[in-house]
Amino acid sequence: MSWFIKKRAPIKSPKDKIKIPEGLWEKCHGCNEVIYRQELNRNEMVCPKCQYHFRIPPRERLDKLFDDSKYTLLYNDIKSEDPLNFRAVKKYRDQLKGLEKRGLEEDAVWVAKGRLSGIETMVAVMDFSFLGGSMGSVVGEKITRGIEAAVEEQIPVIIFSCSGGARMMEGAISLMQMAKISAALARLSEGELPFISVLTDPTTGGVTASYAMLGDINIGEPKALIGFAGPRVIQQTIKQELPDGFQRSEFLLDHGMLDMVVERKELKAVLSRFLRYFTKEKV
Amino acid sequence: MVSMSRDPNNFEEPILELKARIEGLKAQPATPKLEREIDKLEQKLRKLQADTYASLTDWQRCLVARHPKRPYTRDYISNLFEEFDELHGDRRFADDPAIMAGFGTFRGRTLAVIGHQKGRDIKQKLHRNFGMPRPEGYRKALRVMKTAEKFGAPIVTFIDTPGAYPGIDAEERGQGEAIAFNLKEMAMLKVPVLVYVIGEGGSGGALALGVGDHICILANSIYSVISPEGCASILWKDADQMATAAEALHLTAPKLQKLGLVDSICEEPPGGAHDNPNQMFSLLGEHLAAQLAREESLSVEERIEARYQKFRVMGSFMQAG
Fold first, then answer.
1. Which tens digit of pLDDT belongs to each residue from B56-100?
2. E strands, chain B, where?
3. CB B315 to CB A176 under 8 A?
4. d(Cα A221, Cα A201) in Å, to the nearest integer?
5. B8 vs chain A: nearest CA distance in angstroms?
6. N or C: less crowded end of chain A, CB within 10 Å?
7. Minimum-distance CB partner of B168 among A166, A205, A242
8. Is residue A33 part of a domain?
């Protein structure tokens, strides 16, 4: 009776096969719609059909965020090394070299200082294109230095998370970056300085289980995947289908883990307001 | 029965066989000749244990760290503490049996004790969720730490978990937030925090009890950012490469000490903690007593600063210029 239960392969949508000239069109990860790149650019890389927020390069984010796109990049002389001489299918060292050749010189986080609606602010933006935004020694060190400088200069901190979690190729050293950054945030908190965490797609693992969840305000971008364990790991553990919308920003908002879900085009205004609310009046 | 096993997972087999032989001889009526024979075999056993344990691969070390007879948090508490009273619940949602927490007396001194608990038989394992905490476990842990801080009691934590529980309910209640909040709060605790990795130090789920003034790892324990199995399936696309992954991750006590991620290593009995739990309890007890005395000589400010600096310098990078 096997014919009876045989499942027909789903009809493949032909648009998957259309050859698209590089850079002219972009396929939406949210709704599979093909969107004209220029339209996407005009819309701050948000799908006009389904509001999916595309990952954007750190530079784009910093340019949009800071007043007149003016800011200073910090600590970009710190580079990853390979403390464990790690080799899986590829050598970690070779991966790092390859990324440097591609011009990715900031590792998985950019730290910048500048004015946001007039308020001097320390901002860190993670870069998913650098080894999945993974947090290793360099990410830990750059963010910690940024926070420590903010404590010193009495200015607020904003971190845009975008990461699969800790960088396995640095073993437990990467794990300890969670403690290092969280301790620095404790000092920021003690200095009564604001920390706003913006969680973008995706924010998982050790990043969620440290600074990304420690904001005075935790803001999610729409539909961003946010969680501690990745959905695949959970599925393998519990052997059940995961509910629709599980671990998306809206789900976290419902469960009390985010303060708000904010669309990209509103983000600067919202961040500016909170920086202002939290700025102490000089007595 | 197959006795000539080459399975690297069965490295204890020759030890167990020798032990059985000794037991067999001991059951016979004692004669001077037999006693000499037993003596000889016991010497041989000690050497075999020492040799085996000195040359374990990193993957085999993981198996020792996860050994079903290895002492758990509960065993250390009942053998090292004159008194102990367990506290339950996070005052928010539930009690999580994967973490035990409470107050007790160690050599006359009041301490707060917090640790992962795995469970021995299948019923206990399920009850303890195999030592994989949910958010309420971490929140209970922090609640007890805050109480300890208020009443000036030093805190000792025992780490032994495969990791924080990856489940729908845990995510709904903020597994990430619970761990993160512990990391931040533990950094600022005014009382001494002594951390013992007694078995498996499984990633963030372990670190959430692991921010302390002194981090000690037992000689056969492991501490890792991800399980060797998980790492193998992601980076090698082959879960059977776990032995290779275990080697690459630098998760053993000596390697972690070399990287500056743990402060000290507590020796284990020659055949591992499970081979002689009583000896293990006294080894750890001595270590804890000595460490407590050292920590208590610091002022609160010095202690918090030293704890901050300990984690601050963890990391390995290059800096131009």
1. 999 999 999 999 999 999 999 999 999 999 999 999 999 999 999
2. 83-87, 99-106, 109-116, 155-161, 193-202, 214-218, 222-224, 264-266, 317-319
3. yes
4. 7
5. 21
6. C
7. A242
8. no
Handedness of CA B107, B108, B114, B116 (dihedral sign): positive
Per-residue model confidence as pLDDT tens digits over A165-217? 999 999 999 999 999 999 999 999 999 999 999 999 999 999 999 999 999 99
**Contact criterion met (CB < 8 Å) for B171 and A246:** yes
- Is B4 domain-assigned? no
Chain A contacts of B173, Cβ < 8 Å?
Answer: 255
Is residue B293 in a domain? Answer: yes
How many domains is chain B partitioned into structurally?
2
How much is the mean pLDDT over chain A? 92
Could you tell me the two tokens for B141?
Answer: 């842990």
A73 vs B: CB within 8 A: no
Tell me whether A228 touches chain B (CB under 8 Å): yes
CATH number (domain holding residue A215)? 3.90.226.10
pLDDT of B138 reads 98
* B265 lies in the same domain as B282: yes
For chain B, percent of residues with pLDDT exceeding 90: 92
CATH number of domain containing B229:
3.90.226.10
Judge contact between B131 and B99, C-beta under 8 A. no
Q: A interface mutation test: which of B226, B317, B318 has the most A CBs within 10 A?
A: B317
Residues of chain B with pLDDT under 70: 1-6, 8, 321
B43 and B139 part of one domain:
no
CA A39/CA A236 separation, integer angstroms: 39
B160, B25: one domain:
no
- A79–B contact, CB cutoff 8 A: yes
Inter-chain residue contact B245 with A88, CB threshold 8 Å: yes
Angle, vertex CA B204, rays to CA B202 and CA B208, nearest 5 = 105
Are B236 and A89 a contacting pair at CB < 8 A?
yes
Domain of residue B251 covers 64-312
Same domain, B47 and B109: no
CB-CB under 8 Å, A79 with B261: no
Q: What is the pLDDT of residue B2?
A: 43
Would residue A214 count as lying in a domain? yes
> Which pLDDT score is estimated for B5?
46
> Is A78 close to B179, i.e. CB distance below 8 A?
no
State whether B284 and B145 are in the same domain: yes
* Adjacent-strand bridge partners of B103: B85, B112
Give residue A190's pLDDT: 97
List B266's β-bridge partners, or say none.
Answer: B218
A8 touches B: beta carbon within 8 Å: no
Find where tokens 């199995």 sit. Answer: B229
Query: Three-state SS string across A85-107, please?
Result: CCECCCEHHHHHHHHHHCCCCCC
What pLDDT does B1 receive?
A: 41
Among A79, A187, A246, select the one facing B317 at the smallest CB separation. A79
Q: How many domains does chain A have?
A: 1
- Domain assignment present for residue B94? The answer is yes
Tens of pLDDT, residue by residue over A38-96, are: 888 888 899 988 888 999 999 999 999 999 999 999 999 999 999 999 999 999 999 99
Its domain, for residue A90, covers: 14-21+56-278
- In the predicted structure, residue A18 carries a pLDDT above the cut 60: no
Residue B37 is assigned to a structural domain of this protein: yes
- CB-based contact (8 Å) between A269 and chain B? no
B51 shares a domain with B88: no
Residue A106 is assigned to a structural domain of this protein: yes
Residue of B nearest to A211 (CA): B180
Q: Looking at the domain assignment, is residue A47 inside a domain? A: no
3-state secondary structure of B268: coil
